[in-house]
Amino acid sequence: MASRSSLLKVILLGDGGVGKSSLMNRYVTNKFDTQLFHTIGVEFLNKDLEVDGQLVTLQIWDTAGQERFRSLRTPFYRGSDCCLLTFSVDDNQSFLNLGNWKKEFIYYADVKQPDSFPFVVLGNKVDVTERQVSAEEAQQWCRENGNFPYFETSAKDATNVSNAFEEAVRRVLASEDRVEHLVPTDAVNLHRKPRNTSTCC
Amino acid sequence: MAATTPPKVIFEHEGVFIHSNTEESDDQDLLLSGFLRILEKDGETVVEYKPLEDTVDPSNMLCAGKDSSSVVEWTQCSGEKGHRPMDQQLSCDTEWDMVNAVSFRRKPYTNGEGGLNHTNERSKWAFSFYVCDLKSISVKCEGWSYLTFHLRDGNTLPAVHFHQGGSEAFLDNLRKCAQLSECPDDEHTLIVSYYNKALSQSFENLLDDTNYGLVQKFKKDPYTTTLGGFSKVTNYIFDAFRGSELECQERPAEEMSDLLGELIPGLEINQQEEPGFEVITRVDLGARPEVQRREPVTVEDWTKHQDSEGRISNVTHLKHIIFKGGLCHAVRKEAWKFLLGYFPWDSTHDERKNLQKRKTDEYFRMKLQWKSVSEEQERRNSRLRDYKSLIEKDVNRTDRNNKFYEGLDNPGLILLHDILMTYCMYDFDLGYVQGMSDLLSPILYVMENEVDAFWCFVSFMEQMHENFEEQMQGMKTQLIQLSTLLRLLDLAFWNYLEAQDSGYLYFCFRWLLIRFKREVHFQDVLRLWEVMWTGLPCQNFHLLVCCAILDSEKQKIMERNYGFNEILKHINELSMKLDIEEILHKSESICMQIKNCKDLPHSVREILGFSAVPETSTLETSEYGILESPQTSPRATLRQDQLISNGHGHLRELSHNGCKVAFIS
What we know:
- Chain A: Belongs to the small GTPase superfamily. Rab family.
- The structure holds 2 protein chains of 2 kinds.
- By secondary structure, chain A is an alpha/beta fold.
- Helix content of chain A is 31%, strand content 24%.
- Chain B is built from 25 helices and 9 strands.
- In chain B, the strands form 2 sheets. Chain B has a 5-stranded antiparallel sheet with strand order 7-6-5-9-8, with helices on one face. Chain B has a 4-stranded antiparallel sheet with strand order 1-2-3-4.
- In chain B, helix 13 packs antiparallel against helix 14.
C-alpha cells in the first residue's frame, strides 16, 4: 500500500488580518506576497507531504475572518481533522478572540470529542517589532485551554511555518491512532478516505 | 409519538392552501392555509400537509411555549394535539422560545369569527403519505401553481395551492428522493418513480448529517443566546437548514461523490422505469442569437449627447452604446457619476456644480466626525474601533499591485481609508464589511477625487447594500436566483452540480459579493461595471454574467468529474484568467436567447424583469430589483392582495412577509 496516502483537512481560523492566507501560501508555495488581497469567501490549497514515513495530502482551508461572514465559512468546518487557531502577536484583540474561534469551530464542526480534538495555536507576525502579546501569555492560554501546541510564526520570513503545519499533521495522526484502537476494525471508516496518489483519469 | 427516530424536515413551505369548498357547500369556498413539508422518517420520505391551527396574537410571541408546534419538534406533530392555551405558557428556555416564536410569527392571522378556527375542522384536511406510495402529481396553473397528488392506491388528495409560490422548490426537493418525469400524454402530469431504497438509504447513512441534528443544536448553541432578535434566529435557522446541505460537502461529500459515481447511472434523468419521459423543467430555449459588441464610447460621442447647458440628451441611446462597448477611460470620470446616479441625467452644469458643493460640505462634515473622535472616546466605542482596525488592515490589502495604491504611504491608500471611514459615519449600522474596499477602489481610481469617489461609492453601495448586511439576504437571494436561471439554461449542468452538492452555487459567492472585482483584471472591472450600471439589457444582468462564465467552464467541470471541492477550487482559480469581452458577449447572447423564449417560467421573467408583454422601456429599470427577496416580490404581494380581496373574508393574510423564514425557499 505504498501508493496510498491520507487526506487530512486542516482549517485556519482567526481574526481578519492575522495572516491566515499568508501562512497557507508560505507553507504550500513557500512564497510571501506583500500584495496579497484579504480573503473573500473560502479557499483551499493542497499539499502532499511525508510525516514520519507516512504520506499525507494536507488540504488547508482558508476563510474570511470577519464576523459577518460566519454563515459562509462555518459550513466548511465539518470534517476538519485539525484546526489552526491563529492570531497576530502585534494585535492583542486577535489574541483575545482565540477563545471565540475555538468555540465557533467546536460548535459548527460538530466535533464529537472537543477535549481531545487537535488544535494548534499560531502566533503569527513575529517579525514585527511592536508586539502586543508575549510568548508567555500565549503559552499560558494554550496550557489552560487544552494543552495546545503553540508556534510563533512569521509567514513573511518563513519562521516556524512548516513546523506548525507538520505538528498539526502529527497531532491528527496521533489522535487517529488512538481512535483506531477503539473502533472495531470491520467498521467502515468514513472519516479517513484513502486516496490514490497516482494520478489517472 | 411512536416514531423511533425523530423525523427530519427536508423541505417546508408555508402559505400552501387547500380550497376546502365541497360540492355540498360550494358557497363555502374556504381557503385553508397550511404547511407542506417533506420529512425523512425512519428512512422513508414522507410528504405532509398540515393546516395552521392557532390564532396567534403577536404579543404572545415571546412567551410561546415549548410544546408548541415548531420547526424543531416535529415528533409531536404526528400525534393528536388539542388546542393549546397560548397565553399561559412561559418558558425559561429562551433559545427554544425564540425558535418557537419564529414559527409562531409565521402563522397567519385569522379573523376570529371564521369557520375554520376549530382544530378539528382544520385538522381533517391534514394529510401525509410516503413518497413511495405516490404515483403521480398533476401540476396546474391558475395564476398560481397547484399540485394534486395521486397515490398508487388510487386515492387522490385535495389539491394544494401555492398562492405564495414555492411549488417549484417543493418539486425540486421531492426530486432529491424520487424521480419525477413528465407524462408523455399529459404535460401537466408528473410520473413518480422512487429510487432504489437500499441505495438511497446507504447514501443517507453515509452522510450522517441531518437537518434535525443541526436544529437540535439550538438547545446547546452558545451563540443563540447572544442573538438579539427573531430575524437573527430565522436567519440562523436558514443557515442551519441550508448549511446542513452544504455541510454534506466536506469530507463526506468526497466520499459521496465516489458513491455517486456508481449511483449516477440510476439517477440519470431520462431513463429508468419510464423511458422516454422528459424532465418537466426543460424549456426549449432555442438557439443563442449572435450579438455584436462595439467600440467604447469616446469623448466625442459623449459630448455629442450633451446640450449647451450640460443636460444629457438621448439617455436611452447613450446607455445603449455604453452597454455595447463601455467607455473610453477619458470619459469615465464624468460618465460614471451619471451611471451611478450621483448626477441626474437631466441636470445642467450649474446644477451639478451646486450639487457638488453641497455634497462636499456634507462629506467633510461626516469626515470630521470620525476624525475628531479622541482616543478616549474610541476606547469606549468598540464598533468604531473594530471598523477602523479592519479598514486599516484591508486598505493595505486592496489592489496593492495597482500603481494608484502600490508602495508605502501612497496617497491613494489614505484616500481609500478616509472614504471608508467616512462611509462608516454615513451608514454606521452597516459600517465596514470586507469586500467594500474592493468596491471602492476602482471608483476612487477613476474619480481621483475624494468627495466624488465617496458619493459614487455611496450610490454603488445602495445597489450592493444587502450583500453586506448582517443577514446577507442579498447574497442568499442572488444565489437562489442564479440557481433558477442556471436550471433553465442548462439543466444537465445544474443537475450535475446538484449531484455534487453544489446546487447552491456557493462557489459563486465572491463573484456576487463584489461583482467580479477579484475575477478579472482591474481595467476589465472598469469595463464590466460600467456596462452593468447601464441596467441593460435586463435586470440582474450580472447573474447572466455568472451563467456565461459557468457555461464556458461546465464542460471541464463535468468531463473531469469534479466534486464539490474541485468545483470550488476550479472556480476560485479562474480569477484573472477570464476574458471580459468574451464574457460580455456571451452574457448578452444568453439574455437574448432567454428573451426570445415564449414560455419562460414566471420566476425567470421576474428575475430578469421581463414583463409578460415585452416592452423596451422596461428594460431600463434600475438594478435595485435584484435585491428584492422572492418573498417580497411584487407578484407575491399581488397574490396576497387577491387573497384578501377575494370576498370570502374567512382568512386574512396579513403581510407578515417581512419575517418569513428564508429557508422555505
